[in-house]
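Schema walk-through. Below, the input block comes first and the output block second. Nothing else is stored per chain. Lengths vary across the set, and this one has 131 residues.
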Amino acid sequence: MLNALGLAAFDLPVSDFLFAHEGALAEQFVGQELLANQESGTTPQLHFWAREALGSEAEVDFVFCYQCKVIPVEVKSGTTGALRSLRLFMRENNSSFGVRISQHPLSFVDGILSVPLYMIHELTRILESMT
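--- output ---
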């Protein structure tokens, strides 16, 4: 991925990899993990959500189906971010919760499940424990 972005691995300190190109590496990593964790026997697919209303554009990085529910996923390369698009999706689609994948610690606050990047492979297990 770094090569595709025109970056040499030695040009960035290890701590800066996820921040390269406004978090593109973090999104790529999460996308690969979501594909890898899909049920066997299904065709792996990634989906996103975009709202193009005039003056109110929004997008959610990934959406996936879990136990017949559409789960929105927002990826942040750091620990901050307003999550406006995620909250808008949840409000417009009556979602009971959304997922933030970031460097934020594991938590569930105000309908947002925060999962650290290093735990993305455990997302299904975490969701199972919530239901």
